[in-house]
Amino acid sequence: MSSKENLPDTAYVAFLADLKARIGRARLSAARAVNRELLELYWDIGLAIKEKQTSHGWGEAVVENVARDLLAAYPGNTGFSASNLWRMRQAIDVYTAPDFLAQLVREAGAQEGVATDGLSSPEGLAQAVRDLVVDVPWGHHVNVLMKVADPAARLYYLKGSARFGWSRAVLLNQVKGQAYERTRAEGKSHNFPSVLPEHLAEQAEEALKSSYNLEFLGLGQAVLERELEARLIERLRDFILELGYGFCWIGQQHRLTLGNKEYFVDLLFYHRFLRSLVAVELKVGPFEPEYAGKMDFYLNLLNEKERGPGDEPSIGIILCAEKDNLEVEFSLKTKANPIGVAEYRLQSQLPAALQGKLPTPEQLDAAVRSVLPAKRRR
Q1: Keywords for this entry (predicted)?
Q2: Are 287 and 368 in contact (CB under 8 A)?
Q3: Helix, strand, or coil here: 287?
Q4: What is the model's pTM?
Q5: In CA terms, which of 106, 196, 295, 321 is 20 to 30 Å from 333?
Q6: Helices (H), 74-97
Q7: 163-to-35, 74, 155 alpha-carbon distances in Å
Q8: For 238-288, what is each residue's pLDDT tens digit?
């Protein structure tokens, strides 16, 4: 067959779509299998540490010792760090605690058509917990263990992650948006918000890139939750314009160029009173130091290419789901441009007389909280 042979359009399109669907299913299945193996390993490590502490009377030092020796045997694998081993140990305590197990039994008994016979024995209940744990990526467990204290809420977020394939960023925003509390208020004890449409082609890509332990898979960084981000950006744009501080709308996904490359700023405003361009970047996950560097780069481009005669230096605002103030402070130390991060104060380079003309940290945080959706439509 000649490489230049024209194939029937409809037949080829259908054939290619079928291949892509099969590849997507295979990749997602492979990622899930790898994730289950990793979670089985982490569960066994946490359980083994607890059993040795109980039977041999070992104290907390065993975790530090095991971490040191495992890192020596597997250098560069942060999955065996002391902090991660502590999380494994904590997971055993939390997910085998009587209140968590009781909640699991109650919810199973309340669901129609769900067999609960297997939960009547300690062995069956232990297996049910293990099955739930290995269906959820480890990064999700870390978030649930750190940010959620109520057993019923923990179970809710774990089941939601397993059922709907929430990525880590979506889970974080569900927790921050108090999805569990709103579900209870609405009287829907056993129904989860439909956050991600099923069978999306990008779901396999997302599972491979962000839902699973990246070090274990040897893969790159997570893709954005595009739909969630788009909704938040749209609502934040309207919120900022309604503040009445002199913001003038320029554009969304504003295009900047440097050489042959293109860059896009989430939101770009011009502030009449500050006489400055104001760039806003939204991150649906936690703050990372590289966000400050990227914003600084954008501001340099704006100052060089779009700043008008007589304008003040451009200002950057980074809104993220959560942040560590110390990490933010060190990330901004060497930045020449004025940058603010959610609750964090603007850099000292911004004149004090102008700071009152921007939204306050509390207003920015309120904006983020107010637009976190409890549900996303299919």
Answers
A1: Plasmid
A2: no
A3: coil
A4: 0.58
A5: 321
A6: 82-95
A7: 15, 33, 12
A8: 666 655 567 788 888 899 999 888 999 988 888 887 788 989 888 877 888
